[in-house]
Each structure stands twice: as C-alpha cells, then as structure tokens.
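Follow-up to my post from last week.
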Amino acid sequence: MIEFLAAAIRIATPLALAALGGILSERAGVFAVGLEGMMLAGAFAAAIGAWATSEPIAGLLLAPLGGGVIGLAVAIVAVRFRADNMVTGLAVNVLALGLTSYLMRILASGGRPVSMRLPLLTALPIPALSDLPVIGPLLFAQPPLTYLTALGCLLMTLFLNRTQAGLTLRATGENPEAVFASGGHPARVRMLAVIACGAVAGLGGAVLTLQQVGTFTDGMTGGRGYMALAALIVGRWTPWGAAAACLVFGAAEAFELRLQSFGVPVSSYVVQMAPYLIALTVLAGLGQSSKLPAAIGQPLPSTR
Amino acid sequence: MSMMLDMRGIVRRFGHVVANDAIDLDVAAGEIVGLLGENGSGKSTLMKVLFGMLPPDAGTISFRGQPLTGHTPAAAMAAGIAMIHQHFMLVDAMTVAENVMLGWRDAGRLLRRKEMADRIRDVSRRFGLDLDPDARVAALSLGRRQRVEILKAILRNAELLVLDEPTSNLASAEVAELLTVLRRLRQEGKGIIFISHKLPEVLEICDKVVVLRAGRVTGRTSVAGASQGMLAEMMIGRDVTAPRPPMVASSPGPARLSVKDFLAPGLARLSFEIRRGEIFGVAGVDGNGQIELVEALAGLRPAGSGAITIDGHDVTRASVAARLTRGLAYMPADRGTTALVKTMSVAENLMLRDSGRPPYGHGLLLTRGPANAKARALMADYDIRARDPSFIAGRLSGGNQQKIVVARELDRRPAVLIAHQAAWGLDPGATHFVLDRMLALREAGAAILYVSSELEEVLAISDRIAVMARGGFAGIVPRGEVDPRQLGIWMAGRAA
Amino acid sequence: MSDAAPAADQTARLQTRRLRLRRDGLGSRIGVALLLSLLCAAALIALAGHNPLEAFLAIVQGAVGSQHQIGASLNRTTPYLLSGAGVALCFRAGIINIGAEGQIAVGGAGAAAAALALAGAPSLVAIPLALVGGALAGSLWAGLAAAIHLGRGVHEVLVTLLLNFIALLLVQQLLAGPLGQPGAGFLQSSLMPRSAWLSHLAGFDVHAGILIAVVAAAALSFVLWWTRFGFALRVSGSSRLAAAYAGFSLARLTWGAMLTAGALAGLAGGIEVLGMHRRLIEGFSLGFGFKAVTVALLGAMEPLAVVPAALFVGLLESGSLAMQRQIGVPTALITVIEGLTMLFVLAATAARR
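User reply:
Got it. Predicted complex:
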C-alpha cells in the first residue's frame, strides 16, 4: 500500500508542478496548451545543466529558463500578436519536441543523441518526521522537487489570494477591462504570467530528468503536459485542487503498474487508458459547470 | 459659492459634426447637477473631455482651482474625478473587497484583507451603501454592483462623481436606494454629475439641470420650479413631430405581425399588432428591453409564454429559418458581428440568410454566377458603393455596410420587417436612404417594427409610436396625437 | 443586366479565387513566415557546424533526386494532405480539431480489419471497401469527440487530445488481441491480403493514395466554396452570432465538419496501412496529428492550398534522411521547422485582425 501511494506521489509530482504553472497562465486568461512543450524544454535544460556540471543543482537552476523560453514564445505569439491560444500552444509543443531532440544530437557528433547518465537528486528525509510510521517514509523522505511541489501549492494559493499581483492576475483572466480601468496593464500581466507558467512547468519537467529518469530522451514528457492541463481544469484552477487531481491520475497509473506486476489478466493497454479515461469522464461530468476564467482565450483589444 | 468644477466654452468636433458647441458646465461641492439630453446630444462627449479621454478643440476646465489640460484618465482620477459607467468595470467572479483592492495602492502588495474589509464596512455604513465586503459581485443585484463602483470612488478619495445613466438598469426600489446614497454623498460635500433621460428622478435628486440638444445647451435651470413637461420640451424640442419625408396617410390592412401576451426574460407582458402597410415605431432609452424584444421576435432568444404570429401562422417557437420562410426580415443593431460577416465579400453577405434559395443557391449547392449577377443588381439598386461583389464587406463605410443589410432584408419582399437601430451611426444621407426604403416597404404592404433610441427617427417615419420602458410599452400613440411632453414622461419610465 | 455582366461575373469569380489567398496579403504573410522559419533553421544548422546551404541542397536532392525519391516524398505527403485538409475544414468553422492522430490510428485499424476480413475478394472490391472501413472508423472516432464536446460542453481541444491517447492504446490493444499477428513478437497485424494492396502508379514508387488525397482536397475545396454547407461553415467560423442569425445550426455544422475531417483522417490511416506498411503497426500515426495542424495553418485553411503545404512538409521529411546521412544534420531539424512555421504563420496571420 505504501509502495502504491509512493508511486502515485512520484507520478503526480511532475504533473502537479506543471499544473501549478498552468494555473498562472489560465487564470491570467491564456490557455495553457503549451505545458507539454514547457515541461519538455525544462526537462532538457535541467538535463543539460546537470550533465555539463555534474551538479543536479545546476540543472535545477536551468530548468525554469528552458520552460520560460517556451513561455516567452507563447506570450509573444498568443498575447502580443493575439493568435489563437490553443493552436499557439500546440505549435510550441512541436517546437520544443524538435528543438530538444535536435540539440541533443548536435551536442554529440554523428547524429545520435548524446548519452547522459545524470546524478539524481536524492531524497532528503526530514529528521523526526520521517521516522513516523507509514506517513514518515511516504511524505517526509522525498526528493527536493517533491517538497517544492507541496510548497508551491501553498505559495501559489497565497500568491493568488493574498497579494495585489495575484489579484491583478486573476482579474486579468476574468475582466481585463476592469484591470485597465484600475490603472493596470492586462497585456503585460498576461505575458509575465505565461512566462512564469513556463518557468514553473519547466521545473515539472526537471522532476523527470533530475529526480526520476536520470537522462533525457526525445519527447520524454509523453503527454504529461496535457494531463496536467486536464488536472488543473478538474481541480477548478486552484493549486490544491489541481494537485489532488494529479494525485488521482497518479494513483490510476500506479494502480496500472501494480496490476501488471501482479499479472492480473487485464490487458495492460486497456489499463493504461485509465488516466485518460478518468480525465475525460471527469471533464464530461463537470460539463459546463466547470467555469473557465471569463476572459480566457480572448485576445485583448489591440490598444491595451 | 466657489465652484468645484468649472468647464468653460468646451468645443469638440468630429469631422464636420460639432458634438460639443461652446458648452459651459459647473458643479459646486455638495451639489448634484443633472445633465439631460437625447442620445447623440453631446453628453458623453462632454464627459469624455472632462475625464481626459478626448481632448477638447477649445475651452478650459478647472477642477478645485487647478486647471485640467491635456490630462489623462489616470490624472483625472488622481485629481479626484470618478466616472461610474453604465457598464460596470467589475470582476464578477470576485468579492466586493477584492474588487475594491484591485489596483489600489492602499491595499498593499500583500493584501491587508482585514483592514480593507473594515474600511469597506465603515464607508458602507457611513454612506448607507449596505455592502458586505465578502459578497461575490456575481451574486449582487445591479443596484448593489453600482454601489460597489461608488464605494471604490469614495475610498479613492473622489470629490466629483460622474454617474452615466445610473438608473437605466435598476428596479424602482433600487433607484430609491441610489438616490438616498447620492443625498448622503451630497451632505458629505461631494459634487455629482447625474446623467439621465429620466425626468422624475432628475427633478427629485438634482439641484440644477443642464439640458443638451445637438451639442448645445438648450436649457439651464434650477430644479425648484421646473416641471417635467418643461424639461421634456427642452430636451426633445417642438419641431420633431413634422414628418421629414411627407407621409401618405396609411390605409392599414389586416394585422401581419401579432404578438399576444408575450413574455420572455427581460420583458414585461407585451401585446401588440402591426398591420399591413404600417410602421410601428418603438422609441425609448436603450436597455429597456429592446434587444430582448427584437431577438425574441427574430427567433434568436427563446420565447417564454404567449404567441407570435405572422400572417396568422404561429411562429412562437419556430426556428430562424422557418421565420425567414414566413417572410420575417430582421436588421439587427449589431452590424459588426451579427448582421454582417466583415471578413466576407459583399456578395456573400448579401446571400447570408438566403443561401438556399435562387438565385444564390439550389439544393445543396451555391450558384455563384447568378448570385454574383444578383449582387451586382442589388449593389446598383441600393447604391452599395463597392468595387465589385467580391469586395470585403468590412472595408466598406458604415453606411455602405448597412445598405448591404437593407438590400438583403428588403429584397426578400418581407411580410414583416424588424429594424433595430437601422440608421445608427450613419451620416444624414445614408439615414435618409434607409428611412426612404422603409417607407417604400410600407407602401408595398409590409408590417414594420422600427426600434430606435433616436426619437426623431421614430417620429419621422412611424404611423404609431410606442415608448419602451422597463421591458414593456409605457404608452402607444398614433402619429397625429404625439405630444412631446407625454413621450418624455413615458421615456422616463412612468406610465401615463 | 447587360450582356457584359456574365463575362464580368466570370472574371469576378476568378478574382475571388485569387483573392482568397491574396486577401490582406495572406499569401505573402505566410511566405514571409516560411522564410523566417527557414532562416532560423539555417542558424540552427550553422550552430551544429554545418553549411546551411549544403544541408538544404541535400534535402532537395533527397526529396526529388530520383524517381524513387519523388515517389517516397509523395507517399509521405499523402496522409498529411488528407488529414490536413480535414483539419483545415474544421478550423474554418472555428472548431479546433487536433484529433487527427487518433482518427488516423483508428482509421488504419478499421481499414486493416476490413481488408483482413475481405481476404480473397478481388482488388476492385477489397480496396474500396477497406478504405471505406477506414474512413468510417475515423469518422466514428471524430464523432465521439463531437458528441462529448457538444453534449457535455468540454472544449474540443481537450477532448480530441485525450481521445488521441486513448486511440493509440486502443489500436495497441487490438494488435495485442484480435488484429495481431500471433507470434510476431511486435505489435503488428498479419500482412494485408495482396488484393488489398494499393497499387503503385506506373513507373513511380508512389501508391495511388496521393491521387485520392488530391481529389479529396479538391472536393473539400469545392464543398467549402461552392456548397451551402461550406458557406455555413465559413460563416460560423467568422462569427457564431452571424451564423445563428443566418439560421444555421451550430451543432449540425460541428457534426458535419468533425465527421468529414474524421473520415479523411481515417482514409489517411487506411491508405498508410494498405499502401505503405501493408499491415497495421503500432504507433504508425505518431506525430501525424500535429503535422495535420501544421499543413492546415500553412495552407491558410484552404484545402487546395493545403496541397502545396503538405507537399512542402512531405518533401522536407523525405529529404531530411539524406541530409542526416550526407551532411550529418539531425532529422529532428524538420520538427523544429514545423514548429517555427506554425508559430510564425500564427503571428503573421493574427497580427492583421
């Protein structure tokens, strides 16, 4: 059971970080379809940093940069040029996929990707707490980015609800007109939010390279960005809600892994569908009641 | 008494149109000044000049002894002028407190939620606003939302409040509450400009009234001793009842459009008939149910109860397409995204609602050759000035765009036409053209519902005139019996 | 009307056709976007220490250097063209269908199942029926997306995305079960019966799929510009309010566009199975969904203009292997070019609005 929950947390961590980033973008009014590309770029930047210096910390520092660059591309095309948010997100996903695999290959000659064996971020047990039965090893003996995810949920909640900047960001996603009338700059808010989204989602990608896999492979995010997107909608654009949704998706996947290891006679492909089916079912169940930020996806008037 | 606001000789032109022609306006501290006038009389231009959204061509503004020139809206706000728009600048999904804190320096970078809530409760109590800081704006009535805007203005130290049509969306109980709040503000020494059409409220709350017509001040009076009739006359003038295109007396036939006990959201129970060869004009201030009425008739909004019939056929729940086949034509007020597809060609816009019928289409297919020929013919008939039928509609002038709509809707030889703000924003030539076409259609025996907030237009072409207020008809008169005072009073929302 | 009018209308019609792409300089805007992305690609090639011109030349030679290579390029173009034209139709109607990948996968499975079931039937029966099977399966998958979107109000991007993942797993499941080749060791079906193979065109290594694709794109262009349905789609894509005012049913339009796009994507899947791989294999549609979006954008959402757009992407990809082999520039560069092209086209065409 503990193993199962640990697996669920492990799978949920990168999703939850990406979803946190996505919340910034969507609550400012820009659809976060580009999460997949942001995660991938973050995973790549983290791998490069850790590989070049043999220091996972360097990777940790580079990851937000990688994701942020993709965020910048979305900000320019979708906010500045007012292009369709959704399609822009897809475009940067393709770009990130191509760019990371291209760069991986030109780092080594001969057209094969450079092979990396990265030092992983190790678990940091919290003294005393980690000795608690069951929840100790489960919750308090985690690697740093997992703690960061939990901390991120807390900080994001405070940011959105308790700061002027968070208030302005939410208002920009709901009614940019009102932000403008109160002396704000909706376009600037949206651009910054999308770039920050990229940085945070980049950290989500770094979880994969620095904390779980230990190398970078082409398209290694494998749709996690889209799952994060589904999670933040299911979680109603709140940090804790999105994290909970990620845990559910993580549990579904962990369950599937368990089934396989027990040799239960259920086809693994059908079981692998579970997270996607769950996401689709929940979204369909929420239906129109899942209220989007009112001005999401709507370009700002060109004068603002 | 020294003046808080002193506007002198304000002139503002748009091309050849003089929107403000040497207007003087002053407001003292603790004074409520009513600004009265029809749509297009120059009120909003004057307020935009005051708020720094438009520079004046001539004239001076001084506010609390300081000159205001070349100022921005932000500077106007900083000086202590607050504008409360008809459309509230609020975030519906947030609480009252959050709306107040948005963009306000005093709220702090880390929001001082508790302190702000206390201040909101304080001010709310002092001015009788009755607002709960934790209430979500979406759950508030329009009257309360307006008070949130007033609250924001007060907390930001506004000395002069401009309220643009503040009562147009309010229920009568809410109007009374608003007036109480305004009296409280007056006591506290705030200056208020109260922009309205509604004479009883103006008489009730204002200290003095300035009336604008066609960009000029046509009346300036203290409220003491003024009457509704007098104000209505200043606002509307006397000459408007004379029809501009001389109208042949109508010989109305049987009813073509009939509406019985009709109810829908935003509408009071309505019953009326429009007969063959009759233009039924609907006047009234925007936002009193006009859009609800015309869209329900056109089939774009679901009907509540009651019945709509065209030539005796029930269309109450018929689709848009079915109403079209019954001969219902509709010219929406929203030209930009409903009546026209601006990215499409003139020819495609001419066939927007008729693509299944010759000459535009046959069965599933479009017949482009005949459609283009038809488009050319219509362009000639209706004087649509475009290079050719493939010209993009959005690049034409407003007048030419509206002519496309007129051509499309009239060429069908409709039994019933619903025209909403059909001449809105058009120059006099194009307006004349549109009104002429309506009269020609009337000669041809159609029933026409002509809805406009421009009273003069309605008076110029209607056989009967109804005034819409609060979702219903405040009164209906034949053209021969129009009394401008009476119309003004009806527009103000009181039944006769 | 005078006698000159029909002639004038004839020219007007031709002008309209040309205007569609020239309108607001759309064509040149897309040209500039394309040029910019190629410039960026050149910079990336230089970054890798290679000569961009040599690399581009290698792509061209690899794509059209021989009859065989031309054939391979056209074969690559085929699925992009079919699915891209369908996506373009949806985009025109304002529906962001990014489910081509799943629809292609399910379509391929449908065609394979039909072809295997029709073993022994003559080609003239087997091929059309198998392709129809593919189109139906693709339509069904797109229809499922439309049903969830319209019925439950979930955004079509999310629905089609999630259904892509489910479709890929579904095909894997089919290959692990009823459609799989026993004992193959891979997730693949048995070889299609010979009678169901798409024949090669005389003298070229190209199967008949490209002809089907071009005809389909032309047909779609006809639908878009010459039928009432196409007109309604274009109106609703420009303004939903105007479409309602014109009396068009938005739900019906969404169904129509999605089912058509699904059928075309399914057809593309069927052609891949019958013409390229001759069996159903795992993940054969990977990445096709995004290519469909790329070519739809590059083709300005005009089905006929998707032909050169798909050809461009097909040639690039087909030539990229030669570039990697001869010059040493990784083929992943092509994906970069595709992503950049989408971004630049988006920025260039949206800026005008």
